[in-house]
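Hi there. Long-time user, first ticket. I'm pasting a complex I've been working with (about 689 residues overall). I'd like to know whether the download I got is complete or cut off, because the file seemed smaller than I expected. Thanks.
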Amino acid sequence: MATESRDVTEAAETERELTMSRAMVEAIAWEMRNDEDVFIMGEDIADYGGIFSSTTGLLDEFGRDRVMDVPISETAYLGAAVGAAQAGMRPIAELMFVDFFGVAMDQIYNNMAKNTYMSGGTMSVPMVLTTAVGGTYNDAGQHSQTLYGTFAHLPGMKVVVPSTAYDAKGLMHSAIRDDDPVVYMFHKRLMGLGWMPSPSGPKTAVPKDDYTIPFGEADVKRVGDDVTVVTLGLHVHRAMEAASQLEDDGIDAEVIDLRTLVPLDTDTILDSVRKTGTLLVVDEDYQSFGVTGEIIARAAEGALDDLSAVERLAIPDVPIPYARPLEDEVIPGTDDIAAAVRDLHE
Amino acid sequence: MVGVNKLKTMYEQMVTARHYEERLVDEYLVGKEPAFDISAGPIPGELHLAAGHEASGAGVCIHLRNDDTVTGPHRPHHIAIAKGVDLKRMTAEIFGRETGLCRGKGGHMHLFDPDVNFACSGIIAQGCPPAVGAALAAKKRNTDAVAVAFLGEGAIDQGGFLESLNLAAVHDLPVVFVIEDNDWAISMPKDRVTDVADGSKRAWGFDLPGVRVDSDDALAVAEVAGEAVMRARDGNGPTLIEVQVHRRMGHFMGDAEAYRPEADIERAKQRDSIDRLADDLRSHGVTDDDIDEIRERAHERVEDAITWAKKQPEPDPEEAYENVFTNPPATAATDGGENGGAN
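Hi, the file is complete. Here it is re-exported in full:
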């Protein structure tokens, strides 16, 4: 079981590129082959292969006993995953859209997230809750949220948000092997679906062998001296696009992909902020009481003297609207990021 | 008994709904061919069509008044049309326009028309509790209004539905639950997710009447629903009805239905509640000319609605910040700004 080693993998595997969905499935399949205790439950994950192709092909290899379509009863099957995990198995349970957590939140935050603590560490809940997040395709208020901050806020869940195929595979291996509940939030727009085209960034070279990416290690996607941009998920790619636009203006942005929210790699953020003195946090979740505020608070706690300016871009505390001009208004775009970086740089 | 005038009204609603959805397919695919991109074209996002479900919406809503409440699921068009939702403004909403029912904020899964007490939700079964609440309000205010919650057969395994049945039952509330059984929860056939093929039996556990209409026969639906609505209106409590309908299209536009046997798709297309109701009309002495006239009127109404909707303006981006609250606080947590709104 290799740990992350980019030099080796890039040398050996540059030819084979995978979409993020294929990379996720590859990790799940490897773990299922190697551990009889791993199984997966969810709606439309068997014959359909997951609405966002997160389980494509698993039914053929592992059969219905281990790739289980379940009734639309999230309370029952997410709670059953908790129970099976406590009994020593390693279930993966897919919540089709993160927005659907509402009907089953008790199982998630009162059982899955708390049982380890409330049992005084005598029980553990080694399960993965996978779920699709994000907007940009006009699906309105009940199917477009990311809710990153909601899950990261409540103690007891590790929260993973991959932005590339390489990360998606390594983080999935880590998630399944982790002895704690992991919420694995994949952005629909990054999955490489034919019907929802991805930006160019998430499809990457992916090693065939298994490998893990440790939680709590942010990835500095672009080194820069002028402004620190901290983000995650889809907005890693928008920030990278913005950074290359800014290059033409002579602004050198550093882009940090958090990769996991819990645990959070505060050190990488602080190192960058100490260098650039300015911080922009970009998030596709609601602004207030969320990810952007937390990152800025950590920066203030750890590097206040080095900070000359901060800014954030997030959903401005409104539900996600349906119509295209309205959705475009509330979800931070590449131009919004570039403009905010220019403001900070002035 | 459901008289011929009501049957004609139902027929017109069903033809309207079917033609409406066939026309929405055309409009939805603009900009999405040859490569299907869900976010492209004049109607972006998911589109769940109800062709094959029309008998349920029309057969139930024929008994309802404006002051009766209906909550619908993510597949709502046929129900909205039968409840009398403004078709032009509903269409403008689906096109994401300023003058849409919800000013472009809701889209096709989240249609709200308070003028006829209609609402729907994209989260399955979650229209059931608000329907119970509407019924509770009617009872407390001593009106004889009723509420109807529509949901798919895939939704009846949700706590929100089962809890609503119990709450409505224990308080004898004037509510009717209508399960539209199209056999498929996206890709999952009913027998994979439940051992109880007849969803109306779930009423028995709450000591409520449960009735299944085993075909999409609009007249049969109307007869069963008539009794249920009357029972509710008379203060005798809730009823659960399940109607066998058919999913003539995929779960949503773009669903290739690779999981579904070809024979099942063909069967769904061959059964047609609209043709069946036309035969019923003929047996009541309605002429083919009359039927053609109804069809033409329905088609014209659909075309008018689509033509009108497409001429409507798109919302100003600043509208995104409105309507979070009815009484907005003086200082909102986030002010709309120049950079994507968030500052």
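A couple of notes from our side: DSSP finds eleven helices and nine strands in chain B. The domain at 4-315 of chain B is CATH 3.40.50.970 (Rossmann fold).
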